[in-house]
Amino acid sequence: MSRDFATLAHCHQDAPLFANNGGPWTTWLALGGRGAGKTRLGAEWVRALVHGRGPYAARRFGHIALVGESEHDVREVMIEGPAGLLRTSPRSERPTWTSSRLRLEWCNGAVAQAFSADDPDSLRGPQFDAAWCDELAKWRYADAAFDMLQFGLRLGQRPRQLITTTPKPLALLKRLVADPRTAVTRAGTKANAAHLSPAFLDEVVARYAGTRLGRQEIDGEIIEDRPDALWSRAMIEAARVDTAPDLMRIVVGIDPPAGSREGADACGIVAAGRSEDGTVYVLEDATIAGLQPHGWATRAIALFRRRKADAIVAEVNQGGDMVGAVLRNVDATVPLKTVHARRGKYLRAEPIAALYAQGKVKHVGKPMPELEDQMCDFGIGGNPSGGLSSGGSPDRLDALVWAVTELTGRGWQGPRIRVL
């Protein structure tokens, strides 16, 4: 079965054809969640290089560096582990492992040397035509060890390296992702679900799905905070709760799009409630894009009914009387509070972020990744009104701000609720 790996491999384990610049690649960066098959890929890639087997190799490679977080990790994971080089090699092709020399030797003369990233200077001197780096995001001296390895990749016409890692927002990883000579493949844990414990998938993956930690460790995403953002991932994770207590009042905040044309901004729709002690609980993000006004109004009122809310709070800067008219056409009995933004988005959001910092706002149940991404990407960035780094509209965040503001009375005094 090991001989058939290239045929049976998942898509993210297929050898990339081109680098970011469309030419041949020097670095293959395989980003993946826990259990996505990264180690098996690394072992099979090294085996293919040693024997010159396609599709991973068109010729034999004879001098290979194996670099892990520590000597222990190289031995226990990359070499002797369940998906390591010794276990995945057929008996007739199994290399000899000399632990005292940190050296693997194949019958055809190929040699792989093991190195610890904790000792970057150990990479001074040796030279290679290929390297496999495992879990680079965990390396304590990542930049130093990686730099020393690059000086050693000087044999053959085109030395190559495979980096298999669960990502973290490291500057080195971000540089590699952007490097025109890098080929990037990505996979989440579920891509390899057939080879993982059902209990792991049900208990661990389900528990962390959508959280910052889960998106990094399960989905293999590079998750980072914007330095000037009002919210951080840690702040939102600290605000997460499984359930909400009895709520004294529930509202649905709406941030209508500026237009109904194709490609217009989404309509931000967020439900939140307040408990007896004044804590606000964000219940649901029902934001929708690509709908005509009747469509988003119908969705907002459906959320209002389902959550048994007390009122809808809608910004009317963009739509004016149209917003109320659209909601009235869908359901004329829904209590509506219209608000007109007289201050910039940043100034409106700032007191709400302060409530999060004080532990007075919670997120209930499953993560709301799109909303939480906007929150952690909303900063002042030289613009007094604030904004997202993409320049797009923070529609979900605006709806959240209106809902929480209504429940706490922070930042503005709006008109009384009126029934449509």
Describe what you observe in this structure.
It contains 14 helices and 18 strands. The chain has 420 residues and is α/β, with parallel strands linked by helices. The chain folds into two domains: 2-208, Rossmann fold (3-Layer(aba) Sandwich), CATH 3.40.50; 233-419, 2-Layer Sandwich (Nucleotidyltransferase, domain 5). An eight-stranded mixed β-sheet has the order 3-4-5-2-6-7-1-8, with helices on both faces. The chain has an eight-stranded mixed β-sheet with strand order 9-15-12-11-10-13-14-18. Strand 16 and strand 17 form a beta hairpin. Helix 10 (293-306) packs across helix 11 and helix 12 (345-357) packs across helix 14 (395-408). The model is unreliable at 411-420 (pLDDT under 50).
Task: Give a topology summary.
Layout: H1 5-8, E1 27-32, H2 38-51, E2 63-68, H3 71-79, H4 85-88, E3 96-98, E4 103-105, E5 111-116, E6 130-134, H5 142-152, E7 160-165, H6 171-178, E8 182-187, H7 198-208, H8 212-217, H9 233-238, E9 240-241, E10 247-255, E11 268-275, E12 280-285, H10 293-306, E13 311-315, H11 321-330, E14 335-339, H12 345-357, E15 361-364, H13 369-376, E16 378-379, E17 387-388, H14 395-408, E18 418-419
Parallel strand pairs: 1-7, 1-8, 2-5, 2-6, 6-7, 9-15, 10-13, 12-15, 13-14
Antiparallel strand pairs: 3-4, 4-5, 10-11, 11-12, 14-18, 16-17
Helix pairs in contact: 10-11, 12-14
